[in-house]
Amino acid sequence: MPTIAESVNQVLRLANEVNTLARRHGREDLSEILAKVAARWKEDETTIVVAGAQKRGKSRLINSMLGRPGLLPVDADVATNCCLALRYGPALTAVVTDQVAGSFPIDPGQLTDYASMAGDPSRRRDVVSVDVTMNHPLLRGVRLLDTPGVDSLTVGHRQVTVATLQRADALLFTLSAQDQPVLRHELEFLAEAAERVQAVAFVLTKVEDSANWQSLLTENRARLAAFVGAPGESGGPGERIRHLLDAPWLPVSAKLHEASAALLSMGDAERADALRVRSGMAALEDYIRGCAGARELARSATVLSAATSVLSALAAVAQDRVAAGSDDGTEPANRLADVEKALAELATTARERRRLGAGNQFLGQEVAGLVRARLAEIRRPYEEAISELDSRAKIDRYLDQLPDSVERSLQAAWDEILDEAHTLTTQALNEFLASLGLAPAEMDLARVAMPAVRARDLRIEPSAPTRFDFFREGVPAASMAASIGLMLAHLTPVGFVIGPVLAAAVIARRRGWDEVQRNQASLRRLLTEQFAQASGDLALALQREVAGWRTAVEQTADEALAKQRRELESRRAELRSAAAGDPAGRDRTRASGSERLETITALSRRAADLRAEIAAAVNAMNAPPA
């Protein structure tokens, strides 16, 4: 059995050979894949990603492990575009990295606002990452990454987590003992993750309240084995992720671990130790320390994965050359037919892209409708409040507060609208990409600032003059005075005096009420104009942003389809050229392809053997105690 150093050196030699081969055959794009992986080799921290579906206990697990129960937000997912990193430092600090504002420190107590879906939308909108440092021995040489739930309905969540795995040395995948067994979408994520990360451990959380967690663990193992498939079986992920079957399972209880810490603080060390053993946290901590010690092994596995991917791409071209130089024209013809079929399917996809792209043009209108609906909801309470203003004094007091109140309401509505618009647009555009067989893209969150909505002068028009208007109020007043006077004349001898006085009072009340009604109507009109202006300005700003997203995504789709077409056309040209060449030319093509394929096959075999060695070494080093 080779030592760790020997295995690592063998991996590095293999990667150099693959890199040289890719460059020799003009595949700088494949060489770049290896270069990106190698760039992480000198990092002195072991990066461990904590992933899993929502509500599986990830954040509470990290809080408990680090002795800070309230540090990370629990019962709320990590924010869409955010990666939350914890590393060693002399004191508890938190630094936010924002796409617009850059990096700035925050109070660790504000983590929920910036890094959680339960936080303040205006603060978390542009956050890329939050880095937390704390003085805890487990974090020496280790960086823990808390990630969004892989089952989130927000498309970006899973993509952010998968992208994070590019920087991972190990993966802790959480499942809950109080929940259903591992689900299909979780297994699919694991298959993708295992392509990138060699060191994987399953953490079964919340075992304290589950009487049958052992049977659940057994069922989870069985589901994983069925997903991987039997050796040599086709149709499943197979050998590429078979090392997951040997990955450790660590049952833990954050609740018992927190209770242990509480007992220890009260001086009851004996009971605290007993609860700590039952919590299973010691085994998890040992695993994390083992990952730190096996960092080079884990990174070797990542390099091997990249090298294997490069070799697969080179092998496809080499096989075409061998087939094209064959004396028997059947195989070249079959390969050429496959390429022609792929080109025809690509042409169909391109037509579909144009049809689906036309549908994307209505995204801006959908967002504008969203703006109108949201502002209509915001305006309704104002209209209800105006209808309750029954005096000019109340209207004046309300009017004094109205501009600031409307401005605050519009700002709050803007933050909510941005989140809704991002969700709507991201989902629609990623469905567009998926329909073309392309990978989803994480659209930038809306960074557009709220436009400066043109402020209107919310002043009520001057009240009507107090002088008597004969044509508007005199005639009705005279009639009213006569009517009341005649009525009272039958009741009292002074009716001719009381009648006009009462009439004047009725007229005054009517005039005051008319003034209030006129002012309420004016206030409603001004409010309607203000919200209509705001709706137009906000909708226009978002429509421009959405148009930018749509253009970028459609351009990405066009570039991806064009790249596929170029590769297929290049293969077709090479196959046709070789088939049309003279026998000597075909012999040279076949010999060249055979030689290249032989080299690739030998390198691939070495990579598979090394990967098996490293998988065994990693699992052996990180195996928990019995």
Automatic annotation (TrEMBL):
UniProt keyword annotations, A-Z: Membrane, Transmembrane, Transmembrane helix
Dynamin N-terminal domain residues: 48-206
Basic and acidic residues: compositionally biased ranges: 584-597
Transmembrane parts of this sequence: 484-508
Stored InterPro entries: Dynamin_N, P-loop_NTPase, TRAFAC_Dynamin-like_GTPase
Region of interest (Disordered), ranges: 572-597
Pfam families: Dynamin_N
PANTHER family in the cross-refs: SARCALUMENIN (PTHR43681:SF1), TRANSMEMBRANE GTPASE FZO (PTHR43681)
UniProt protein name: Dynamin
Organism: Planotetraspora mira
Taxonomic lineage: Bacteria, Bacillati, Actinomycetota, Actinomycetes, Streptosporangiales
